[in-house]
Amino acid sequence: MRAPATWITAAIAVAASWSSCCCWARVVHVSWDIGYVSVNRDGYATRRAIGVNGALPIPALHVSAGDTIALHVRNSLDEPTAVHFHGLFQNGTAYGDGAGMTTQCGIPPGGSHTYVAATGRQTGTFWVHGHFHDQNADGLRAPLVIHEAAPPADYDAEYLFSLEDWYDQPFADRMRVVLDPRGKFPPDPSFPYGLVNGYNGNETQPIRFEPGRRYRIRVVNMSLTEWFRFSLPGHRLRVIEADGVRAQPCDVDALDLGPAQRYSAIVQAHDSVAANYIYNATLYANFVPRVAGMNPRVYLGSVEYAADAPTHVPPPPASDAALQLPDDSAMQALDGEPLLEPVDARISLLATSHKYADGTTRALFEGLAPFNMSVPAVPALFTAASIGELALDPAVYGPQACAHVLRHLDVVEIEVRNPTDIDHPFHMHGHTFQIVEYGPSSAGGGQNATAAARIPLRRTSRIPMRRDTLVVRTGEYVRIRFRADNPGVWLFHCHMDVHFALGLAITLVEAPDVLQQRMVIPQELVNMCLAQDGLHASGNAAGNAGLDMSGILPPPAW
């Protein structure tokens, strides 16, 4: 069952107004019946997962610049679902961002909804994934490629690598262990397997190079927890894109991708067919012990020049330090957008964790409650749209939202400090941000101060790189900037799904006064909330008037 035709037509009309840059823009219809599947993806264990149309992996979505995507979703799960187009701005259509109980109520079991996403002027490498109760972690994820009308570099063909970590348990089972007040925190490490294009990374088909040709290699890390390092030994990679933003070309030995990050790179094939080569996708995490064959896990595939040629494997680098990797602070955006200044508003965040009175340990930013999408009775966007002048008061969104209200067109700088023992990949919805500065942050003392002492100060150029996801290493701080030019409600959160579920997130309520003038939330989404027990489509986070939060679950007792 699809959404009413009147809603789809109206939504596509809104989307088309944002896609006017391309006179050949299409509406691309995709149907997803989201349900449970039993799969053995890693070659070791069969488990229940979440797939689409009875299968997993979910095929990649390919569209062209200016196209509008109409994603028709039916929910065949036994819980609500929502789908997020990771990296798309959703200009004027924040209600289509798919962040459960932030921009919409979940699609109920047995229900249907059509997401209408305009690609506008965005091109590059993105992905689509579940954004309700971390269903992404159980398989609800797929790459999205928006092909340029005029490619940013000269190349002959391209290959897409989607990389995933894969655990032998459903995410809910793992979270029960993490939140067990009788257990230790963090629990003993588990070591996921790595998937390349949906299957065990050592069982993939070769990619084929022809002498003298140039190839675009797209790499997407769709992992829920771990990093990937990707390389083609014996070849250099010329990076031309990060997170859907075109970059001034820079040559590297390998790509290092935290969860949710993406790159495109151009690879020049050799002139000879005398030898074949390999590609290397290494899954690793620096926050769990190194165990031979488990962390890291190395996955190798073939780069074939000739079927009967021997394989040449160049010697590995002497150390990781010898590898040249992309450096966000040194990269520059190809469009030449200068550093945003002056700064109008600043937000300072310090990542931490706390053991609460109930015995559970939660992740949070210091001074805020743990973010919890399960608490509100009203999605934050619906509150912003319905509560009038009070929408400018962060308190109306409830303590669980960790809301920061931004003024329209302000230049906002966010500083994130990470004194924890774990690197964090932070993602911003609705925007890309300029990367302004990295430096040492010794907050927290101990081994974090030691780590901080090894981190250099790195300031960007006057033309900084932009992206939507960046990694803040342990002992490090980062400063990012963006202009608040997209009225809506947008999450800024750690993209390690466990940390997001534990509360490491804030809500950016952007120009709610402007939003109220410009945006009308579709009636179908209003009805979706009203049809579910305990949910509302207007009022504060509790569904009440003013600042009356009666009926809402309070934050955990300190």
What is the compact description of this entry?
With 558 residues, this protein is mostly beta strands.
Strand-helix topology:
Blueprint: H1 5-17, E1 27-39, E2 47-52, E3 61-64, E4 68-75, E5 83-86, E6 112-118, E7 124-130, E8 141-147, E9 157-166, H2 171-178, E10 193-196, E11 199-200, E12 207-208, E13 214-221, E14 227-231, E15 237-242, E16 245-252, E17 255-257, E18 262-268, E19 277-284, E20 297-304, E21 345-355, E22 361-365, H3 380-386, E23 403-406, E24 411-418, E25 424-428, E26 433-440, H4 446-453, E27 458-459, E28 466-467, E29 469-472, E30 476-483, E31 488-494, H5 497-502, E32 505-510, H6 512-518, H7 523-530
Parallel strand pairs: 1-4, 3-8, 9-13, 12-20, 21-24, 23-32
Antiparallel strand pairs: 1-2, 4-6, 5-7, 7-8, 9-10, 10-11, 13-18, 14-17, 14-19, 15-16, 15-18, 19-20, 21-22, 24-30, 25-29, 25-31, 26-27, 26-28, 26-30, 31-32
Note the overall shape: globular
Counted beta strands: 32
Poorly predicted ranges (pLDDT <50, ≥5 residues)? 1-22
C-alpha Rg (nearest Å): 23 Å
Question: Could you characterize what this model shows?
Answer:
With 558 residues, this protein is mostly beta strands. Helix content is 10%, strand content 35%. The strands form six sheets. A seven-stranded mixed beta sheet has the order 11-10-9-13-18-15-16, with no helix packed on it. Strand 15 (237-242) and strand 16 (245-252) form a beta hairpin. The longest helix has 13 residues, at 5-17. It is globular. Residues 1-22 have low confidence and may be disordered.
